[in-house]
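Continuing from the previous page of notes. For each protein in this section, the sequence appears first, followed by its structure tokens. Read the first protein now.
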Amino acid sequence: MCFSRYCWLLLLVVITTKVQAATPEPDFAASTELQVTPDKCISLQQGRTCYSKVTASWRSQTPLDLCLFMHDQQLHCWQQHSSGTFVFEFAAEQSALLQLRQQQQVVQQVLIEVNWVHKASRTKRHWRLF
């Protein structure tokens, strides 16, 4: 066992090197921002299709090749851009996940929530006059 100054110095160098190696480098996902407006769609009754005009905007600090996806369907792509906007007609019965991807890696994602005013009733109402 060594308690001299040189051993402590060596131990300090080893610890510092391990801490620096464990620190992750900043990636493009942390520097990319995705905004969706509106992020909620309101349907009159549960189970009915909700319709809305949605604007998806993104920006990044560096130019990237990105594609916008919903339900694994490609909506739009940008080549070497640092920002982009895409407007589309949203039509769904359930909430949908909108993803911004570089190749197959998800960079950012936003959930478009589908809500309803009236919950679907399970019983049918039968009207009788007599």
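Done with the first. The second protein uses the same format. Note its length before scrolling.
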Amino acid sequence: MITLEFKQRLRISRDEAWDFFLSPKNLKEITPKHMGFEITSGNEEVSMYPGIVISYKINPFPNIPVQWITEITHVEENKYFVDEQRFGPYKFWHHRHIFNEIEGGVEMTDIVCYKVPFGFLGNILDKLLIRKRVIQIFSYRREILKQKFGEI
């Protein structure tokens, strides 16, 4: 199991951060354009709640489209929510989004736990490609959020 943690402090209130991240349509804005992110379940205008299932089309690598279906499994208003993969490229995916109010803004923490398929071969692919790609996605997201809201 791989666990990655990303933190960012933004110059917006926890309420503003919560509202932004609870809207599935904003995922496209914070995902690298070359990944061709698209919500396919037709519920991008709905705010996330426990039990909502959202399907996406994404190209994690050039010309490799993947259908990814996640469920929001836990929500604690203005504090955290969890998305878990139900079907998709990973053997296991659990992503916790945490929002803590701090002086001058919000500190957001993303904790991603995942496991790749294909056993030993998957572990090699993770070390060579997959982990780097996940880190690149969160680095891109960090930059977009910094430009949009400003960092502390």
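What the second structure shows: The chain has a mean pLDDT of 95. The helical segments are 14-21, 119-149. We return to this in next week's lecture.
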